Amino acid sequence: MNATRRGFLLGCLCGCGFPHTGATGQSIASTTEGQCFFDSAASQKAAGDVKNGLYRETSGDAGRDRTISGMLFQSVRTYGLNRAELPTFRFIPATVAGDGFATGDVIGPGTKGLVALNLKLLNGSDTMGLLGFQIIMAHEFAHIFQMRNQYIDRFRAAGAQTREIELHADYLAGWYMSQQGEISTGLLEIVANTLFSRGDNNVDVREHHGTKVDRMSAVLKGYLSGTSTDVASAAALNGILYLQDR
């Protein structure tokens, strides 16, 4: 990857949420740790903060930036996004709540959408930190894929709530990880357990993302089914079948 392409990606590509209004037309806010900002006024504010330069274009470490830039390009390729569909990417300061989010907001010319991930995901060992970061990145890019291919509208039309959309993104994140080379299911489970330990059990709340067990199961199922297809659209359909069979 040459320096020009790498610089473009870190400047233009962007765990989670995108602005989407409910039946009342009111955005619903959730800043719970371990959740996306899905259906959230918080994601709209965060997108505004990005536009105002409050989020970062670098992690502060050039070597780590190169590694993450490679992950970003891999996300684009794996989900089949073209250059015209590149979202902006930004790092969220570690002092800000939330793991990350994805939105459909246009942040800059020549980009479409936004993905932002929290720098605190990189805490700990490089191996575990980067793996966790990559899983959350895969989840957020799954939301971008859902938006690009009208899956959000399909879920809504079928009466699905945030939980189904999030578990579908978790399934796709697991599938994505299977496409990056062999990772032991034990290691994947350890990292997923850490990531989702801040999940919620608020099953009666509209923005509920699924319990930790729900989310880990979706990631692992997506990973284990990765050999069935290397095409994102087929994996997405498999993910829907998985949710229907639950």
**Beta-strand proportion:** 5-15%
> What is the strand arrangement across the widest sheet?
1-3-2
Unreliable stretches (pLDDT < 50, length at least 5) are 1-35, 201-208
Name the overall outline: globular
Structural class: mainly alpha
Give the total of beta strands.
3
Q: Report the C-alpha radius of gyration, rounded.
A: 16 Å
Instruction: Count the DSSP helices.
Output: 9
Cα distance spanning the termini: 41 Å
Portion of residues in helices?
40-55%
Mean pLDDT: 77
Largest sheet: 3 strands, mixed
Order of helices and strands: HHHEEEHHHHHH
3D structure, described in words:
With 246 residues, this protein is mostly helical. The protein has helices at 3-12, 41-51, 62-78, 126-148, 151-157, 162-178, 185-196, 212-224, 232-245; strands at 88-92, 100-103, 114-118. A three-stranded mixed beta sheet has the order 1-3-2, sandwiched between helices. α4 (126-148) packs across α6 (162-178) and α7 runs antiparallel to α8. The protein starts with a helix and ends with a helix.
